[in-house]
Amino acid sequence: MSLAETAPVPPAAPPEPPRLEVQNLTRIFDGQVVLDDVSFSIPAGQVTCLLGPSGCGKSTTLRIVAGVDMQDAGKIFVDGALVCDTVFRVPPERRAIGLMFQDFALFPHLSVAENVAFGLTGPRAEKRARVEELLARVRLSRHIDSYPHALSGGEQQRVALARALAPRPRILLMDEPFSGLDERLRDGIRDETLALLKEEGTAVLLVTHEPHEAMRMADQILLMRAGKIVQRGAPYNLYNAPADRAAAAFFSDINVIKGRVKGALTPTPFGDFLTPGHPDGTEIDIVIRPQHLKIDFDRAGRGPNPTVQDGTPARGVVERARFMGRESLVEFRMEANGEVLRATVPNVFLPKPGTPMWLMIRRDRCFVFPSQR
């Protein structure tokens, strides 16, 4: 028997705890439940986004994690250590959590270097080296002695990011950090910010109400509604497998085709849809995004071809068409039921109102939900 066969197998190392873990967080204001049993965790180096409409509980969650508000129930852990429950509470300044908000909150009387160094401790030379390192990484070395009023909005945002990261926080909380920027600047600055956060290995909790921002930046999205997390997962999964009609509508415009189940089928202007699992008589919403509603240009003005791959074409009449820059948006009044459906077409396509056209839908891109009438 060889030594390799007799040597004991070392025990597996225990898994590292999440950088941030939130358990069963609840918050009540004036008898109204603002957060309802919210739980999630974020490992080091991951960007998690709290996404949802105003008033859904996103910022309240952020404030409780930061330590500037108190929960009514639940616990918060950083690297496995309890930092807050309803009795015990680590002060905000001792949580190793950085904060970055939409107004940047730079000190106007301090230079860029002094702003970035504000939260640093230790010898002056070490602080200066950290400031110079971060300003080089956000491409602002030439502004090290400038003051905030001399910077553009995008430059101020990068200074705020450098300041938030200077103390090497284990967690960075970002509350609508890009909403004050010109729309033309946002995508580039988001990408630069994301690259720097990944380099630092910081766990990030980002709050936004913009689906585009969440999908561009997040590794994981927590979709919130009325104080609850209604769906969580990677951006691709939330977009392509929404939990309900409202979740689908939050990420993009949608068309809704209504119907009623009969024998596991739901009749629509586009033919019968398989809707198993719904009892007869159930009202159904079939949801499809405008880019998946197709105009049958080969059959324009002629009758439907029952052998088409995506089911039965249905005829609609153009109500209006608008060019949106990269695509055209065409609205149709369906002849079968009078409903209005919208289709997007690449480039310029502006048919005149009253033009009849045949439409088809991508059945593999449809979502079926119980009706929200």
TrEMBL record:
Tell me which residues make up the ABC transporter domain. Answer: 20-251
What GO CC annotations are associated with the protein?
ATP-binding cassette (ABC) transporter complex
List UniProt keywords, sorted A-Z.
ATP-binding, Cell inner membrane, Cell membrane, Ion transport, Iron, Iron transport, Membrane, Nucleotide-binding, Translocase, Transport
Matching InterPro entries: AAA+_ATPase, ABC_SmlMolc_Importer, ABC_transporter-like_ATP-bd, ABC_transporter-like_CS, ABC_transpr_FbpC, Mo/tungstate-bd_C_term_dom, P-loop_NTPase, Transp-assoc_OB_typ2
Q: Does the keyword Nucleotide-binding apply?
A: yes
Picking any one GO molecular function of the record gives: ATP hydrolysis activity
Any one GO BP annotation for this protein: quaternary ammonium group transport
SUPFAM superfamilies hit by this protein: MOP-like, P-loop containing nucleoside triphosphate hydrolases
Query: Which domain of life does the UniProt lineage start with?
Result: Bacteria
Q: What is this protein called?
A: Fe3+/spermidine/putrescine ABC transporter ATP-binding protein
Q: Which organism is it from?
A: Rhodobacter xanthinilyticus
